[in-house]
Amino acid sequence: MDSYLRKTVLKAAIEYYKKKPYDKALPVPYGNIIREIRLLREVTQQQLADYLNVSQNTYSKMESKNVTIKNKRLIKVAEFLNFDIEEIEPIIRDYFEETYVRDEMVIDFEREMAEKYVTELEEKNDYLTKTVKAQEETILLLKEKIAALENKK
After folding, report:
1. Residue 73's closest CA among 84, 62, 87?
2. Helix (H) and strand (E) counts for the chain?
3. pLDDT single digits (tens) 50-99
4. Counting beta carbons within 10 angstroms of the beta carbon of residue 54, is it exposed (0 to 12), middle (13 to 18) or buried (19 or more)?
5. Under 8 Å between Cβ of 103 and 25
6. Are 8 and 37 in contact (CB under 8 A)?
7. Cα→Cα distances 111→22, 97, 125, Å
Protein backbone atom coordinates (compact mmCIF):
# COMPACT_ATOMS: atom_id res chain seq x y z
CA MET A 1 0.00 0.00 0.00
CA ASP A 2 1.47 3.35 -0.99
CA SER A 3 2.19 5.91 1.71
CA TYR A 4 -0.56 8.30 0.60
CA LEU A 5 -3.18 5.57 0.77
CA ARG A 6 -1.77 4.51 4.14
CA LYS A 7 -2.14 8.08 5.43
CA THR A 8 -5.70 8.18 4.09
CA VAL A 9 -6.56 4.97 5.97
CA LEU A 10 -5.04 6.32 9.19
CA LYS A 11 -6.80 9.67 8.79
CA ALA A 12 -10.15 7.88 8.54
CA ALA A 13 -9.40 5.64 11.51
CA ILE A 14 -8.17 8.53 13.66
CA GLU A 15 -11.32 10.50 12.84
CA TYR A 16 -13.45 7.49 13.79
CA TYR A 17 -11.60 6.83 17.04
CA LYS A 18 -11.95 10.45 18.15
CA LYS A 19 -15.56 9.55 18.92
CA LYS A 20 -14.75 6.38 20.84
CA PRO A 21 -11.40 5.10 22.13
CA TYR A 22 -9.44 2.59 20.09
CA ASP A 23 -10.04 -1.00 21.09
CA LYS A 24 -8.58 -3.80 19.00
CA ALA A 25 -11.62 -5.93 19.90
CA LEU A 26 -13.91 -3.51 18.06
CA PRO A 27 -14.48 -3.93 14.34
CA VAL A 28 -12.36 -1.86 11.98
CA PRO A 29 -14.22 1.30 10.87
CA TYR A 30 -14.36 0.27 7.21
CA GLY A 31 -17.12 2.78 6.43
CA ASN A 32 -14.89 5.76 7.27
CA ILE A 33 -11.92 4.20 5.52
CA ILE A 34 -13.83 3.37 2.35
CA ARG A 35 -15.25 6.91 2.20
CA GLU A 36 -11.75 8.42 2.44
CA ILE A 37 -10.30 6.07 -0.18
CA ARG A 38 -13.31 6.65 -2.47
CA LEU A 39 -12.75 10.42 -2.20
CA LEU A 40 -9.03 9.95 -2.82
CA ARG A 41 -9.82 7.93 -5.97
CA GLU A 42 -12.42 10.55 -7.03
CA VAL A 43 -15.21 7.98 -7.25
CA THR A 44 -18.82 8.88 -6.48
CA GLN A 45 -21.09 6.97 -4.16
CA GLN A 46 -23.36 6.33 -7.14
CA GLN A 47 -20.54 4.71 -9.12
CA LEU A 48 -19.78 2.34 -6.27
CA ALA A 49 -23.47 1.67 -5.64
CA ASP A 50 -23.91 0.75 -9.31
CA TYR A 51 -20.89 -1.56 -9.17
CA LEU A 52 -22.29 -3.27 -6.05
CA ASN A 53 -25.79 -3.36 -7.52
CA VAL A 54 -27.31 -1.47 -4.58
CA SER A 55 -29.00 1.92 -4.27
CA GLN A 56 -26.93 5.01 -3.57
CA ASN A 57 -28.82 5.34 -0.27
CA THR A 58 -27.79 1.80 0.79
CA TYR A 59 -24.21 2.51 -0.18
CA SER A 60 -24.27 5.81 1.73
CA LYS A 61 -25.33 3.94 4.87
CA MET A 62 -22.35 1.60 4.45
CA GLU A 63 -20.00 4.57 4.60
CA SER A 64 -21.77 6.23 7.49
CA LYS A 65 -21.46 3.12 9.68
CA ASN A 66 -25.22 2.62 9.84
CA VAL A 67 -24.87 -0.89 8.43
CA THR A 68 -22.28 -3.59 8.72
CA ILE A 69 -20.51 -4.16 5.45
CA LYS A 70 -20.63 -7.80 4.40
CA ASN A 71 -17.29 -9.37 3.51
CA LYS A 72 -18.30 -9.99 -0.11
CA ARG A 73 -19.20 -6.33 -0.55
CA LEU A 74 -16.08 -5.21 1.26
CA ILE A 75 -13.93 -7.26 -1.11
CA LYS A 76 -15.79 -5.86 -4.15
CA VAL A 77 -15.36 -2.29 -2.87
CA ALA A 78 -11.65 -2.92 -2.33
CA GLU A 79 -11.32 -4.30 -5.87
CA PHE A 80 -13.16 -1.31 -7.35
CA LEU A 81 -11.11 1.21 -5.37
CA ASN A 82 -7.90 -0.75 -5.96
CA PHE A 83 -6.67 -1.45 -2.44
CA ASP A 84 -5.93 -4.60 -0.45
CA ILE A 85 -8.48 -5.05 2.32
CA GLU A 86 -6.07 -7.36 4.18
CA GLU A 87 -3.65 -4.46 4.72
CA ILE A 88 -6.16 -2.19 6.46
CA GLU A 89 -6.48 -3.84 9.86
CA PRO A 90 -2.72 -4.26 10.52
CA ILE A 91 -2.07 -0.63 9.56
CA ILE A 92 -4.67 0.59 12.04
CA ARG A 93 -3.71 -1.86 14.79
CA ASP A 94 0.01 -1.10 14.49
CA TYR A 95 -0.54 2.65 14.48
CA PHE A 96 -2.83 2.69 17.51
CA GLU A 97 -0.82 0.16 19.49
CA GLU A 98 2.38 2.14 18.83
CA THR A 99 0.55 5.32 19.80
CA TYR A 100 -0.79 3.66 22.95
CA VAL A 101 2.69 2.49 23.98
CA ARG A 102 4.13 5.92 23.17
CA ASP A 103 1.34 7.61 25.16
CA GLU A 104 1.97 5.31 28.12
CA MET A 105 5.69 6.14 27.99
CA VAL A 106 4.91 9.86 27.91
CA ILE A 107 2.49 9.49 30.82
CA ASP A 108 5.08 7.56 32.83
CA PHE A 109 7.74 10.18 32.06
CA GLU A 110 5.41 13.05 32.98
CA ARG A 111 4.42 11.28 36.20
CA GLU A 112 8.09 10.77 37.11
CA MET A 113 8.87 14.43 36.37
CA ALA A 114 5.87 15.58 38.41
CA GLU A 115 6.96 13.42 41.36
CA LYS A 116 10.48 14.90 41.17
CA TYR A 117 9.03 18.40 41.04
CA VAL A 118 6.79 17.72 44.05
CA THR A 119 9.81 16.37 45.96
CA GLU A 120 11.81 19.50 45.07
CA LEU A 121 8.95 21.73 46.18
CA GLU A 122 8.61 19.84 49.46
CA GLU A 123 12.36 20.25 50.09
CA LYS A 124 12.16 23.98 49.30
CA ASN A 125 9.14 24.29 51.56
CA ASP A 126 11.02 22.58 54.42
CA TYR A 127 14.03 24.86 53.87
CA LEU A 128 11.85 27.99 53.80
CA THR A 129 9.89 26.86 56.88
CA LYS A 130 13.17 26.40 58.80
CA THR A 131 14.48 29.73 57.52
CA VAL A 132 11.31 31.56 58.58
CA LYS A 133 11.41 29.87 62.00
CA ALA A 134 15.06 30.87 62.45
CA GLN A 135 14.28 34.45 61.44
CA GLU A 136 11.31 34.56 63.83
CA GLU A 137 13.64 33.39 66.64
CA THR A 138 16.16 36.06 65.66
CA ILE A 139 13.41 38.69 65.70
CA LEU A 140 12.34 37.58 69.19
CA LEU A 141 15.95 37.78 70.43
CA LEU A 142 16.36 41.24 68.91
CA LYS A 143 13.09 42.40 70.51
CA GLU A 144 14.32 41.12 73.87
CA LYS A 145 17.65 42.97 73.42
CA ILE A 146 15.81 46.16 72.42
CA ALA A 147 13.53 45.84 75.47
CA ALA A 148 16.55 45.25 77.71
CA LEU A 149 18.33 48.31 76.28
CA GLU A 150 15.22 50.44 76.72
CA ASN A 151 14.94 49.29 80.34
CA LYS A 152 18.56 50.36 81.02
CA LYS A 153 17.77 53.95 80.03
Report:
1. 62
2. 6, 0
3. 999 999 998 898 888 656 777 788 888 888 988 887 877 777 777 777 66
4. middle
5. no
6. yes
7. 23, 21, 21
